[in-house]
């Protein structure tokens, strides 16, 4: 039952500000409130699906119209509280690691603990604080866990704009942040939407994508994206894309790294996002030699677990094939060739051929 204290627009405005203050105390960089209007994206989204740009991610084509109707994801939804949290540690190098081909590059959001758990816990805590003040307000927390157009919601909430690289860009913080949503039945006052998209004539993200995954501005063919290939895709990686993957073994940050708005990025202060097992500076060879038990142990509580051991070996094998000639790499690949799955063997053999044909 909602508190009788919420009888006027002033009461609700005060509560909205309290929510934003609490969010900041909980480690969020920003919170905005919106009553999203998402039907306008339906035709464009369906066209993207029809063109097969979602690759093998069938869940993106499922659930009918749910992603366009927030009130059906959570009954009684009146507003969505959109929040973001920085994830890039100050100590972590980015470009330098990409230019060191014997080192592994892991997308920077995945170096620490699984962000789903971190953010969901904070969202639930925020919802409980609201509950302490207003009573049962009806809510549901989401962190990349349901058919939600989270970037469109954040854009409508005035948190930033969707860039040509399809990521949300903030004029105050670039794009090194993660999003979460709290659906609520409270009729809170809403924030002003972003008035325009400030990419201008810049197309650095499109030009610098290693696999040319951008069909046009704001349109990503995910089936060619390195993040998709190394995380979501479970089969053979197309031969024509392997050499373009470099040392990227889990995800890709290139379209963020070249974005001019990145200069406004803020570093995280969250310990949970600090690198675990020195993954920000690990040698490819060391990771390739992990047993399945080691992989499971060292990726416990990490987003990397999602890719699975077989895909992990596949990804690292490709990176070793792209590394400079090294007899130790060749020896490791030959040994792995004798005891791996058929999928991994295909990529190990490709890597071996690359190494043997490019002696220094």
TrEMBL record:
Annotated pathway:
tRNA modification; tRNA-queuosine biosynthesis
The gene coding this protein:
queG
Q: What name has this protein been given in UniProt?
A: Epoxyqueuosine reductase
Cofactor dependency: [4Fe-4S] cluster; cob(II)alamin
Where does it reside? Cytoplasm
Q: Which residues form the signal peptide?
A: none
Locate the residues binding tRNA.
Answer: 234
Say which species the protein is native to: Marinomonas balearica
Return the similarity comment: Belongs to the QueG family.
Q: Which PANTHER family match?
A: EPOXYQUEUOSINE REDUCTASE
Q: Which UniProt keywords apply?
A: 4Fe-4S, Cobalamin, Cobalt, Cytoplasm, Iron, Iron-sulfur, Metal-binding, Oxidoreductase, Queuosine biosynthesis, tRNA processing
Cofactor remark from the record: Binds 2 [4Fe-4S] clusters per monomer.
The record's subunit annotation is: Monomer.
**Where do the catalytic residues lie?**
144 (proton donor)
| Positions contributing to [4Fe-4S] cluster 2 binding | 209, 225, 252, 255
The terms describing its cellular component in GO are: cytoplasm
Which reaction equations make up its catalytic activity? epoxyqueuosine(34) in tRNA + AH2 = queuosine(34) in tRNA + A + H2O
- Function according to Swiss-Prot or TrEMBL: Catalyzes the conversion of epoxyqueuosine (oQ) to queuosine (Q), which is a hypermodified base found in the wobble positions of tRNA(Asp), tRNA(Asn), tRNA(His) and tRNA(Tyr).
This entry's Enzyme Commission designation comes to 1.17.99.6
Report the NCBIfam families cross-referenced here.
Answer: tRNA epoxyqueuosine(34) reductase QueG (TIGR00276)
Name of a matching Pfam family: QueG_DUF1730
Where is [4Fe-4S] cluster 1 bound in this sequence? 199, 202, 205, 259
Residues annotated for cob(II)alamin binding in this entry: 67, 144, 165, 168, 179, 227, 252-253
Task: Give the classification, highest ranks.
Answer: Bacteria, Pseudomonadati, Pseudomonadota, Gammaproteobacteria, Oceanospirillales
One of the GO biological process terms = tRNA queuosine(34) biosynthetic process
The UniProt entry, under InterPro entries, shows: 4Fe4S_Fe-S-bd, 4Fe4S_Fe_S_CS, QueG, QueG_DUF1730
**A molecular-function term among this protein's GO annotations:** metal ion binding
